[in-house]
TrEMBL record:
Residues the record lists as binding Zn(2+) 2: C525, C528, C543, C546
Quaternary state and interactors: Component of the replication restart primosome.
GO biological process: DNA recombination; DNA replication initiation; DNA replication, synthesis of primer; double-strand break repair
Species for this entry: Brevibacillus panacihumi W25
Protein's name in the database: Replication restart protein PriA
Coiled-coil region: none
Entry-linked SUPFAM superfamilies: P-loop containing nucleoside triphosphate hydrolases
Role noted for this protein: Initiates the restart of stalled replication forks, which reloads the replicative helicase on sites other than the origin of replication. Recognizes and binds to abandoned replication forks and remodels them to uncover a helicase loading site. Promotes assembly of the primosome at these replication forks.
Length: 811
């Protein structure tokens, strides 16, 4: 038997399967999709079996093959569909196959091979006395080499000598980073009859042992954890050990799941009577689900139109068909509130994959899927890889969110992977948003997705009234505060009426850079060439790319002026200002500083929900998906900071943000107001957001995109090169650029090579090439060829090259 294995070395040289012989004793364990350990050169690596053949080659060829050393799981973690999908991804996104595979698995399974140091039998107490390291090894037998280097830096250099003299040896081992969580359970091995007899045979002084037998007499057929025995029945471990020795009970290790929701009760919830718009949207979706045929829908519904109820109903019909459902939400909207809605409806059938879970918790949720213990997965981007084998429905909520695009290899978009998966499984793809991505809406208007509309809020609640305030006029009227007079008035009004508000700070701009107001000098990172961000807590300026940090200077390095300070507004500053203007106001601030601790996000939100705050103040974090009945005012401090980014999606992102924030107000019985403060009130993204007019925004923005040659009219590929020396990186970029220029179609535009907008990161210079194409039937193949040419040249150099297909970040 021969296994074809791809190994965990993500470079193109190894980006193909290698043959290994499967020793007889392993053949019952190995399957296509198994994780294995294989020798590779001098190392041992983790690999994935992508094919198995019976050995039919010539004997001598077979002899040259090395053996698979280990099969790591009883059940292969990769289904045939996932394997096929990973191969497609590696072609589509030009990434090494193994990186696509790894993106599909929970982190704990990406076990890294580690070198271990092992003590031999020659090592005795006497030899050990010379050295702390040897003593440690004598006690523990084995230590990872990396740990040895850290713990015993002084002795590390002696290790080769000890290996030479036979005291120590090294080997590579691949181990899972986290083992399963286990608990000890106690079970009776006796029949009730035997229990009574045994009880009678015990002396009265063996009180603890007698109690154990009594417990089992009262609860036949039941087992108890050792912990329960202790806490509820007051039985200590030695009594259990004694009974185990007699052979009357068994103490066993049982694997348990770490369930972060274990101690929460979920109320069962009845579904509502659907509105006519919901029914109209549901009808074709349910028909497609019943037919088990491929179909894709874009549900364009305003915030509060009841989209989530439509998703839940679609999922229920999928389960009734005996099929499984994947529900994707942006990381940031995967709130406990959202999880509750699912658990309330589908109970224990739901697994939740959330990055706030610990690695162990994630792994446990994932195992519920592969063991077919659940039928619904709710999760962020990577939940699209849930190892179901009968997917009938994939829902993508807030499909326009940029977090569906992965910004590291493999640079996939979850929407595109979902499309592939839906077609492969004859499943239904249902995308929903109040502000669909332009690309998606364009395809929907051309009929590639069926467009479903829900233009009204549930219960005919009015859309909130939107007020736009021109901040330039505020300044003319001598108002230098960050709050316009209108917003000030409305905050005071809500405080009086004891209603709640959200105040939102658009921080996607360069809002906290350090600038000299005399000469305009801005502080930049010396390694990365981007503005440093001001951090108030310790008065430093810090680079968000590499962590470079310097104290906030008191004088401008250029002109010596004292007027150098951070520019723009942070959440802390808004909080301070609110406290000054409205004494006694209760502000709950949510930003990276207050939410970095696990669980703090949820704590703050539930405090707000319980009315322990008047204002929820925050950044992007509070714009999405939250649903608070008593919020009647949403204020946006500076709407246009995101308009001025060097990004062709700047207007689209601004429109989305304003719409989302507006959607937070007046969702229930109380009506709501939205105040947008801006320096460019005439901009079309702000104007259309004010009127909740997505189609009008779409028309205007499409004109812009056509004029400037951006998606959806053109598709993009961004190729980025980096190296410590400018001439080297420029040459590398030209090697690839020249090749492409010869091969691309006439209608394709090739921009560059030019320096990237962020020209240097961590002391590496960055250059880029951008392809803009309309008619390039085989882009992937073309890029693969160009990559080969580049890599041939790059053999002696160390230029890093990345390809981003349909990029989101253009910096
Ligand atoms: P969206 O996802 O479009 O923002 P939701 O599905 O969250 O909207 O619905 C908004 C609110 O309306 C929620 O509180 C939800 O429980 C409620 N809701 C949705 N559909 C109905 C309905 N048919 N009848 C009554 N209430 C509904
Ligand atoms: Zn200056
Ligand atoms: Zn830096």
């Amino acid at each position: 038997m021969i296994a074809q294995v791809i190994v965990d070395v993500p470079v193109s040289r190894t980006n193909r399967p290698f043959d290994y012989r499967v020793p007889g004793w392993l053949s019952p364990l190995i399957h296509v999709g198994s994780r294995v350990v294989v020798p590779f050169g001098p190392r041992k690596l983790q690999g994935y079996v992508i094919g198995i053949t019976e050995d039919d080659g010539p004997e001598e060829a077979l002899h040259r093959l090395k053996d698979v050393e280990q099969v790591m799981d009883d059940t292969p973690p990769l289904t045939p569909e996932l394997l096929k999908m990973s191969e497609w991804m590696s072609r589509q996104y030009l990434c090494p196959w193994v990186t696509a595979v790894q993106a599909m698995l929970p982190a704990v399974l990406k076990g890294k091979a580690q070198k271990w140091l092992t003590a031999s039998d020659l090592l005795d107490e006497e030899t050990c006395s010379r050295s702390g390291l040897l003593w440690e090894l004598y006690r523990k037998r084995q230590l990872p080499l990396a740990e040895v280097e850290k713990q015993f830096p002084d002795e590390f250099m002696l290790v080769p000598g000890w290996i030479h003299s036979g005291l120590l040896s090294t080997e590579y081992q691949v181990r899972d980073r986290i083992t399963k969580k286990q608990q000890s359970f106690v079970r009776s091995l006796l029949t009730p009859q035997q229990l009574s007899e045994s009880l009678a045979s015990l002396s009265a002084r063996a009180e603890q042992m007698r109690r154990v037998l009594e417990v089992f007499l009262q609860h036949p057929e039941q087992s108890f954890s050792v912990q329960t025995m202790r806490d509820e029945f007051g039985i200590n471990r030695s009594a259990l050990k004694g009974l185990e020795a007699k052979g009357w009970i068994a103490i066993e290790q049982v694997e348990i799941y770490r369930d972060p929701y274990a101690n929460r009760r979920f109320q069962e919830k009845q579904k509502p009577d659907f509105t006519p718009l919901q029914l109209q949207a549901l009808e074709p979706i349910i028909t497609s689900i019943k037919e088990s045929s491929y179909a894709s829908y874009l549900l364009h519904g305003v915030t509060g139109s009841g989209k989530t109820e439509v998703y839940l109903e679609a999922i229920e019909h999928t389960l009734m068909k005996g099929r499984e459902a994947i529900f994707l939400v942006p990381e940031i909207s995967l709130t406990p509130q959202m999880v509750e809605r699912f658990k309330a409806r589908f109970g224990a059938d739901v697994a939740v994959l959330h990055s706030a879970l610990s690695q162990g918790e994630r792994y446990d949720e994932w195992r519920k899927i592969i063991r077919k213990e659940v039928k619904v997965v709710v999760g962020a981007r990577s939940a699209i890889f849930a190892p179901f084998e009968n997917v009938g429905l994939i829902v993508i909520d807030e499909e326009h969110e940029s977090s569906y695009k992965q910004e590291e290899t493999p640079r996939y978009h979850a929407r595109e992977v979902a499309l592939w998966r839906a077609k492969e499984n004859n499943a239904v793809l249902l995308m929903g948003s109040a502000t669909p991505a332009l690309e998606t809406y364009a395809l929907a208007t051309r009929g590639r997705y069926k467009l479903l509309k829900m233009p009204d809020r549930v219960g005919n609640r009015p859309m909130p009234q939107v007020h736009v305030v021109d901040m330039r006029e505020e300044l003319h009227s001598e108002n230098r505060s960050m709050f316009s007079r209108l917003l000030h008035e409305m905050i005071a009004d809500r405080l009086k009426k004891q209603e709640q508000m959200v105040i939102f700070l658009n921080r996607r701009g360069f809002s906290t850079f350090v600038m000299c107001r005399s000469c305009g000098y801005t502080m930049r990172c010396v390694h990365c060439d981007i503005s440093l961000t001001y951090h108030k807590s310790n008065h430093t300026a810090r680079c968000h790319y590499c962590g470079y940090t310097i104290p906030q200077p008191s004088h401008c390095p250029e002109c010596q002026s004292e007027h150098i300070r951070f520019f723009g507004t942070g959440t802390q500053k808004v909080e301070a200002e609110l406290a000054k203007l409205f004494p006694g106001i209760r502000v709950i601030r949510m930003d990276v500083d207050t939410t970095s601790r696990k669980g703090s996000h949820e704590e703050l939100l539930s405090k707000f929900r319980q009315g322990q705050g008047d204002v929820l103040l925050g950044t992007q974090m509070i714009a999405k998906g939250l649903d608070f009945p008593r919020v009647t005012l949403a204020g946006i401090i500076a709407a246009d900071t995101s308009l001025h980014l060097p990004d062709f999606r700047a207007a689209e992102k601004t429109f989305q943000l304003l719409t989302q924030v507006g959607g937070r107000a007046g969702r229930h019985e109380l009506e709501g107001d939205v105040v947008i403060q801006t320096y460019t009130p005439e901009h079309y993204s702000i104007q259309h957001a004010t009127r909740h007019d997505y189609p009008a925004f779409y028309e205007d923005e499409m004109l812009q995109r056509r004029r400037t040659g951006y998606p959806p009219y053109f598709r993009l590929v961004l190729i980025t090169f980096s190296h410590e020396e400018v001439p080297v990186v420029v040459r590398g970029a030209h090697v690839m650029g020249d090749f492409l220029r010869q091969k691309v179609a006439q209608t394709t535009i090739l921009l560059g090579p030019v320096a990237s907008p962020i020209a240097r990161v961590k002391d590496r210079f960055r250059f880029q090439i951008m392809l803009k194409y309309r008619d390039e039937p085989n882009v992937a193949e073309l890029l693969a060829q160009a990559t080969a040419v580049f890599e041939e040249w790059n053999k002696q150099q160390k230029v890093l090259m990345t390809i981003d297909v349909d990029p989101y970040v253009l910096l």
